[in-house]
Amino acid sequence: MYLDLLKRVLTNSLFAIEPNVEASPAEFTLGFLDHYIHGPAISMLPIARLENIQTCVIDVIRRNVSGDLVEAGVWRGGATIFMRAILAALEEPHRCVWVADSLEGLPQPDAERFPIEAKAHEGPLMAKEFRHFAVAQEEVAANFAAFNLLDDRVKFLKGWFKDTLAVAPIDQLAVLRMDGDYYESTMDTLRGLYDKVSVGGYVIVDDYGEDEWTNCRQAVDEFRSEHHIADPMIPVDRRCFYWQRT
Questions:
Q1: Which of 35, 116, 153, 195 is at 20 to 30 A from 14, Cα to Cα?
Q2: Do the Cβ atoms of 73 and 101 come closer than 8 Å?
């Protein structure tokens, strides 16, 4: 009941109805702005994606899959707050939650290589409404503290992924959740952290099905091909997919 309530509080869905992720892009964007960006939500993930996190984290704990939990790209911190809450609810005493983000917004895409990303990045929606998803570390930490979940097992990795993830002091990961939006952020995350994902652990790609404004799918497909990863991609919804490392 605690985790179910927390999912609804984090997503501003306790009394309101979340946007329909299966709707048309225009309808979903309008609902997204109203519900998440202009509202009090701490996570912009649909509840189904938080349930996916819950399923994966509980599974690795029950099967004793080694490693910590990380999200690369955290916005206001909702998904990582939920990860820490799951550890608390299950009285899991050792794993850490890594909060990886520039905390300054999204990086500028390479316009020659990724023109659709560059166009989206400079557009009024991303620049003015979303503010490139920039949220200060102090705000994210305060959100953890509001749920009494800010402790020494919450580890911040502040900076661009290309600079922080490959040298992060992480030994092993049981769950790697990627929400970096763009090709280079996605590829930097995979290159920096995938080798640390334990066999039996999970890799979640929030934007794999987003083809209108990002090359995230291209990055994942190229990395999986280069590393001969044949583990099936499993849909959470039409925009978010994950796989279990075997």
A1: 153
A2: yes
SS3 123: coil
- The type of residue at 40 is P
**Residue 82 domain-assigned?**
yes
Look at residue 13 and tell me if it is in a domain: no
pTM across the whole model: 0.95
- pLDDT tens-digit series, residues 203-233: 999 999 998 899 999 999 999 999 999 999 9
User: Quick check: is 29 in a domain?
Assistant: no
How many separate domains does the chain show? 1
Q: What span, in angstroms and rounded, lies between the C-alpha atoms of 8 and 29? A: 20
DSSP state of 182: S
Containing structural domain, residue 73: 45-244
Angle at 30 between CA 233 and CA 117, to 5 degrees: 55
Tell me, yes or no, whether 3 lies in a domain. Answer: no
pLDDT tens figures, 152-163? 999 999 999 999
* 20 contacts: CB under 8 Å, gap ≥ 6: 27, 28, 31
d(CA 87, CA 235): 24
Q: Identify the CATH number of the domain in which residue 108 sits.
A: 3.40.50.150
Q: Which residues are catalytic?
A: 51
